[in-house]
TrEMBL record, chains A, B:
Residues 8-132 form the Nicotinate phosphoribosyltransferase N-terminal domain. Keywords: Glycosyltransferase, Ligase, Pyridine nucleotide biosynthesis, Transferase. Catalyzes the first step in the biosynthesis of NAD from nicotinic acid, the ATP-dependent synthesis of beta-nicotinate D-ribonucleotide from nicotinate and 5-phospho-D-ribose 1-phosphate. Residues 153-321 form the Nicotinate/nicotinamide phosphoribosyltransferase domain. It comes from the Bacteria. This is Nicotinate phosphoribosyltransferase. The keyword Transferase applies. Its EC number is 6.3.4.21.
Length: 440, 440
């Protein structure tokens, strides 16, 4: 997998457009494409950027092997000339954008891709796939982490989404504020904390619940978490403490009225002397359920379906639009489409966030010609939101791998704390700060 | 990718349960696990099975290489004994279930996995990931294909979901009734029809819309589809026919009031003599939009976001439950958990569909001991819904690859036609036939 090229994870028209523009010469025109969303999911106050590190990983692998080229040729998708061009393809352009863990709003230019039309076009589908899904998960995770109010949230959603999406979701969840994942491939690829308890089948395959608990403790030690709702929870808790003693690590409850059950189980554990035994709950949790469990004696949450499906917003409506391109005379020219309800703002963008009393009060998107933008001076205290990820094909490896994910995890907490507190509300409403677009 | 093993696309607890049961011997108990959903997404009348062929592909690749084993060992997830067991792991059990393209309902046993506890446990997460996502997409696709009422639907959603999910979605869309996909990797892996037009950036990178159209026709021929809504649609259509002549293949509209625009464009094309030029529309379509476009002169649909996110139901809530296992005395024993609202029915299941006047009237799920099920005789005319996919580790290759997908595509149309016509309604309601579970 580490070597698999994402070059064909692409809509066919990217290749046919490349082919046509190589014929007429426009493939070589320098271009600036931008990724943004026109709106947040309904009622959401902010979004969280995730996936950029995965984009950089994918870029490293993005080349076409003989089999890919043969497919494009056999299907007649591109001409022989284009096959030659593709043989040595490597992205040689530059990419900047919002860092992972950064907040985004409508029209925030979360990624900016600069290069020739040909090379930028080939990346469109892949970049959007990664950002649309990863940002959806990170944005949901962030709301959940906020609602959990300091209690650790763990990703257990792999089974409820595509098997590769599961890996991306685990990573995005950590960017969005989660502590770990049940998904082993994600743990391996990204060095994430792996967590797990046991399933009901583990209890059922044994002749008794006691046998199952004894077996789990023999294998994993007393610090393990036992699943106690296969039959009768009260009996299971009693058996669990009998088997493990009061050093039992934890119990998991996966059904029923979680608040009431956590309270009963806590009292029972305490009465049995297992005062340090933790309680994990799972069962179709989302940010609203987590908020409602704040007063229940729960120690950690396992979140599945609603995390990996973006809690009602499984994609982000990010689009990839040409903002500026070289003209026939060699000068860069802002361009825009005029499609009804989908018109774009011409010109490359700068992006800043301004603050009042240490709280963000506006997202500033500044569009203009290269010369105008070069001369633009932001006001004092504005945060420049764009960082450089790729410089003429050179990837900045600081934004890849485990450390980048943990840095993004920390950054998201800080950036969220700098938004007005309404951002942490689960009430539906407008984005917590406005986006002001200025055309110079 | 073709060689990448999905063995770690798995929740950690599958491996720790394996480890514990290898220690105590229960890993070798023969088991029957079943996959089903307790309910369809709210208001849905039926679901469509998809993903089984992908499961068979994944099973062929499911083994642990040295790097996987080192990870499990270094992280202390399993013991040395388990590492040895995993070194030569190949699934040697049997799998049966609903064929791809078959309709499913609450409690339909869409997949049944039989083998030792150890080997069946390792597959849980992967099987659920595949079925939960692929069935969600196929079920949405089926509603869209029905609403399109014979007009071809094409998958253009890859950019709105995870990049690998996009490949699975393209395949599931075809199972669910779609004709093709924009996704090249899906087209390559599964031999699907690849389709494409052009993006707005293609028009914008050229000095004029006319230049762009000339370029596209030079490269792709007059039978191509030109995107006509970058600036002014009426002008674009006039230019398109001027450039290509009345043999122009098609035009695409991606914004605005699609019905009204299609009507205007159809009249304009006809007036220009381009009576065979087709009209494709795209722009956040779903089954409701398609139904509302029935009277508009549209020839084909490109569907994106709503397809790959299951049109409001991005996952299927499929679960994997132990139904029967070998006891200490070697006999197979039905088992079930009693968790509140999540109790299961003990025993392996048979599944049949009964018909009245050639229309399905009931899904029959029959549970019991091996002996009882062996003696069970369905009534005359009941369709046996379970087919054999894997027999003691031997995969039936008829359910893999391109031909299986096209067979599923055809099967889905036939199976849907055998349901009461309410299944084709977009009105929210109950599953179109009831599921009756009988415990022998």
């Amino acid at each position: 997998m580490a070597e698999f090229s994402p070059a064909l994870m692409t809509d066919m028209y990217e290749y046919t457009m490349l082919d046509a523009t190589l014929r007429d010469g426009t493939a070589n025109r320098r271009c600036v494409f931008e990724i943004f969303t026109r709106h947040l999911p309904e009622g959401r106050r902010y979004g969280v950027v995730a996936g950029t590190g995965r984009i950089l990983d994918a870029l490293e692998r993005f080349h076409l092997d003989d089999e890919d080229l043969r497919f494009l040729s056999d299907r007649g998708i591109v001409s022989r000339q284009t096959i030659s061009w593709l043989e040595n393809f490597r992205f040689s352009g530059s990419i900047r954008g919002y860092r992972e863990g950064e907040m985004f709003f409508p029209n925030s230019p979360v990624l900016q891709v600069e290069g020739t039309f040909g090379e930028c076009t080939l990346l469109e589908t892949l970049l959007l796939s990664v950002l649309n899904y990863d940002c959806a998960v990170a944005s949901a995770a962030s709301r959940m982490a906020t609602a959990a109010n300091g209690r650790p949230c763990m990703d257990m959603g792999g089974r409820r989404t595509n098997e590769w999406a599961a890996v991306a979701a685990a990573r995005a969840a950590v960017v969005g504020g989660f502590q770990g994942t049940a998904n082993l491939l994600a743990a391996k690829m990204y060095g994430l904390k792996a967590i797990g308890t046991a399933a009901h089948c583990f209890t059922l395959v044994h002749d008794s619940e006691r046998d199952a608990f004894v077996s789990q403790i023999d294998a994993l030690g007393k610090n393990t978490t036992l699943l106690v709702d296969t039959y009768n929870i009260e009996e299971a808790v009693r058996t669990a403490v009998e088997v493990a003693g009061p050093e039992l690590g934890g119990v998991r409850i996966d059904s029923g009225d979680l608040a009431a059950l956590a309270q009963r189980v806590r009292n029972q554990l305490d009465a049995l002397g297992a005062t340090n035994t933790t309680i994990t709950v799972t069962n179709d949790l989302d940010e609203y359920a987590l908020a409602s469990l704040q007063t229940a004696p729960v120690d950690s949450y396992g979140v599945g379906t609603r995390l990996v499906t973006g809690s009602g917003a499984p994609t982000c409506a990010m689009v990839y639009k040409l903002a500026e391109r070289e003209g026939a005379d060699g000068t860069m020219t802002p361009v825009a489409k005029k499609s009804k309800d989908k018109a774009t703002v011409p010109g490359r963008k700068l992006a800043f966030r301004s603050y009042e009393y240490n709280l963000a009060d506006c997202e500033h998107v500044i569009a203009g010609s290269e010369a105008d933008l070069a001369a633009f001076r932001p006001e004092e205290g504005w945060k420049d939101l764009l960082v450089d990820f790729v410089d003429h094909g050179e990837i900045d490896s600081r934004y890849q791998g485990h450390d980048a994910i943990m840095a993004a995890h920390d950054y998201r907490a800080k950036a969220l704390a700098e938004l007005p507190i309404t951002a942490q509300s689960l009430m539906r409403g407008e984005p917590v700060i406005p986006t002001e677009t200025t055309v110079l």
